[in-house]
Design a protein that fits this description.
With 471 residues, the protein is of the alpha/beta class. Helix content is 34%, strand content 24%. The strands form five sheets. Strands 1, 2, 3, 4, 5, 6 and 16 form a seven-stranded mixed β-sheet that branches. Helix 1 packs parallel to helix 8, helix 3 packs across helix 4 and helix 3 packs parallel to helix 6.
């Protein structure tokens, strides 16, 4: 058994773990990184990257089928599903070198491709290695949650980890789960020519602002995605190519089944009890500074039981580097963390939703709304379905909800505004190129000030008075 000592031990080579390892090593700390699976974690290999690549293929097919309004003949696209999956694989391959073992070893990180488990509060065993570390970071990510539906284990089914191995296009894809993953894949497969049915036990996009979710769901249904809400899957039966999902409202039959009901933190087999680390139903118990109940150990990203997004893990990683290397105090700020669903139209949120803001701020809340139909670029691109909504308290945004084209791009400005405590006047005063979708952000801020300027009798009296004195 080889004994190693290091400043920082990182378990998990997903986005969060890689951020910590690279940052710490390049600033002079000794770092050991453990990863038993694929470098790059779920996002690169099974999640964000492959899903967006397939969405891109589907978008090309959709644009061909709906080109006539632009003066270009619409055609029925000839979809090669296997080739679309090859595009997915090539996309992963192009990004892989950035997350490779060789690259991180170049930073000075010692990479060990083994599973790690605690054998004491400060020691982890990984294969033939025992690593003693001053600080340990658990960045083990998450994996698909497979619900205990009777019959599910007896039929072939897909998850986001196995979908990318599929080369035969589903004739009728049945998806259990109406969250972001389920709906992104539903629209992508519908645009590629599959029939798609989504089964959701509660409300589709249930964690989002209902008004914004409705905009997205209406568009998906208009494209032919069947979405069954408040429909509980009770039993599953069938065989390869013929799957039936029995629900409270009858049976749904399809050729393939995708289970997309959420994810669970990867915390089993880590020996957490030996390290004195407590867990919750969502993941590892952490404080506002991401420390576990073992003060030498942090948990970040999906493992910490919070929002399951790659950018959140990266944000956590940056905080850990500050604290573990420099001893600087850190505190997670959940309200600056945006999220996005990459359907068409996209759906994005940061800070408080309207309902949350009304509950917290009551009559002090002002809600500013701007439909996409007033944006010239959206008109030119025939993407006028959408709405931007900003929640404002005492002149500062406390939340923003966007449903529409490029919502994921637009939301970044509001994350900055909330995180930096900018006033709406700062947004209204910025200059953006014309014509762009980004003008929506500036215009909604202008909408906030419009009644204060144009419907204010005091302002009008001052203007008339000043005009009398100006030469």
């Amino acid at each position: 058994m080889r004994v190693m000592k290091t400043d920082l031990l990182v378990i998990g080579a997903g986005s969060g773990g890689l951020s910590v390892a690279a940052g710490a090593a390049q600033m002079g700390a000794s770092v050991v990184l453990l990863e038993r699976g694929e470098m790059g974690g779920d996002c690169l290999n099974y999640g964000c990257v492959p899903s967006k690549a397939l969405i891109a293929s589907a978008a090309r097919a959709s644009s061909m089928a709906h080109a006539a309004p632009f003066g270009v003949a619409s055609v029925t696209p000839q979809v090669d599903y296997a080739a679309a999956q090859t595009h997915v694989a090539e996309t992963i391959a192009r990004i892989e070198p950035m997350d490779s073992q060789e690259r991180f070893e170049g930073f000075g990180v010692t990479v060990i491709r083994e599973h790690g488990r605690f054998i004491s509060p400060t020691e982890v065993q990984a294969g033939a290695h025992v690593i003693s570390a001053r600080r340990i970071v658990l960045a083990t990510g998450s994996s698909p949650f497979v619900p205990p539906i009777p019959g599910l284990s007896d039929v072939p089914y897909l998850t986001n980890e196995t979908l990318w191995q599929l080369r035969e296009q589903p004739e009728h894809l049945v998806i259990i789960g109406g969250g972001p993953i389920g709906l992104e894949m539903a629209q992508a497969h519908r645009r590629l020519g599959s029939r798609v049915t989504v089964i959701e036990a509660q409300k589709a996009l249930g964690r989002e602002d209902p008004e914004m979710a409705a905009i997205v769901l209406e568009e998906l249904r208009a494209e032919g995605v069947e979405i069954l809400e408040e429909t509980q899957a009770q039993r599953i039966r069938g065989s390869d190519g013929a799957i039936a999902v029995e629900t409270v409202n009858g049976a749904v039959q399809g050729s393939h089944l995708l289970v997309a009901v959420g994810r669970k933190a990867n915390i089993e087999g880590l020996g957490l009890k030996k390290a004195g680390i407590e867990t919750t139903k969502a993941g590892i118990k952490v404080d506002e500074g991401l420390r576990t109940t073992n003060r030498r150990v942090y948990a970040i990203g999906d493992a910490a039981g919070g929002p399951q997004f790659t950018h959140v893990a990266g944000y956590h990683g940056g905080l850990i580097v500050r604290n573990a290397l420099f001893g600087l105090p850190i505190k997670v700020k959940p309200r600056i963390l945006p999220r996005a669903t990459y359907t068409a139209p996209e759906l994005a949120q940061v800070g408080l939703t309207e309902a949350e803001a009304r509950l917290e701020h009551g009559d002090a809340l002002e809600v500013v709304r701007l439909p996409y139909q007033h944006n010239d670029r959206a008109i030119a691109q025939r993407q006028t379905t959408g709405l931007l909504k900003v929640m404002v308290v005492k002149g500062r945004p406390v939340g923003a909800s966007i449903a529409g084209a490029q919502a994921g791009e637009l939301i970044g400005l509001w994350a900055l505004a909330i995180g930096s405590k900018l006033k709406m006047s700062a947004i209204a005063g910025m200059v953006v190129p014309y014509p762009t979708i980004a003008e929506l952000n500036k215009r909604v801020a202008g909408t906030y000030f419009s009644p204060r300027l144009f419907e204010n009798e005091t302002v009008k009296r001052i203007v008339r008075l000043v005009q009398r004195w100006l030469p």
